[in-house]
Specification:
There is one protein chain. Helices cover 77% and strands 0% of the residues. It is an all-alpha fold. Helix 1 runs antiparallel to helix 2 and helix 1 (3-29) crosses helix 3 (77-102). The chain is flat and about 50 Å long.
Length: 149
C-alpha cells in the first residue's frame, strides 16, 4: 500500500470538493460572497469562474491519481480518506484566515456581525483537519501486515 500517495490523492480531492462546495453553496446558491469582492460584479463573477475551473481541474486530477493508485493495487483507502479530510480542512482554514482576514478578498457574508460566521467557518475547518490527521496517523502507523490489506 502507498500511504503517502493515497493521502496526497485524497487531499487534492478534498481541496477540490471543499472549493466546489464553497463556490456552489456560498457564491451561487446563497449569494453571500464571491471569490474576489473588491471590484465590480463582473470581476467577482469572473473570479468565481476561475475558482470553479481550478476546483474542477483539481477534482479531475485527484481522481485520476486515485484511480491510478487503485489500478496498481496500492491504494490505501484509510489514508485516502484521511487525506480527503485534511485537504477539505486545509482549504477551509486557508480560506477563512488568509482569504477572509489577511488578504480580505471577501468575507463569508456582508451586513451581519461576522464573528459567529468566522468561528463556525474556522472551527469547522479545524475539526476536519483534526479528524483527517487522526485518520492519516492511524493509517500510516498500522503494522506492515495490515497495510497489505
Amino acid at each position: 500500500m502507498d500511504d503517502r500517495r493515497s493521502t496526497g490523492a485524497g487531499a487534492v480531492i478534498g481541496v477540490a470538493v471543499m472549493a466546489a462546495v464553497d463556490e456552489i453553496v456560498f457564491h451561487q446558491l446563497l449569494g453571500w460572497h464571491h471569490f474576489y469582492d473588491r471590484s465590480t460584479t463582473s470581476v467577482a463573477l469572473f473570479s468565481d469562474g476561475l475558482l470553479h475551473a481550478a476546483s474542477l481541474l483539481a477534482l479531475v486530477g485527484g481522481f485520476f491519481w486515485y484511480a491510478d493508485l487503485r489500478r496498481r493495487g496500492v491504494l490505501a483507502t484509510r489514508a485516502a480518506w484521511g487525506g480527503f479530510l485534511l485537504g477539505a480542512g486545509a482549504f477551509q482554514i486557508f480560506d477563512g484566515i488568509v482569504d477572509h482576514k489577511v488578504l480580505r478578498l471577501h468575507q463569508i457574508r456582508y451586513g451581519v456581525h461576522l464573528l459567529p460566521y468566522d468561528v463556525v467557518w474556522n472551527v469547522g475547518g479545524a475539526l476536519l483537519l483534526v479528524i483527517g490527521a487522526v485518520l492519516t496517523w492511524r493509517a500510516w502507523s498500522r503494522p506492515a501486515r495490515a497495510r497489505a490489506r
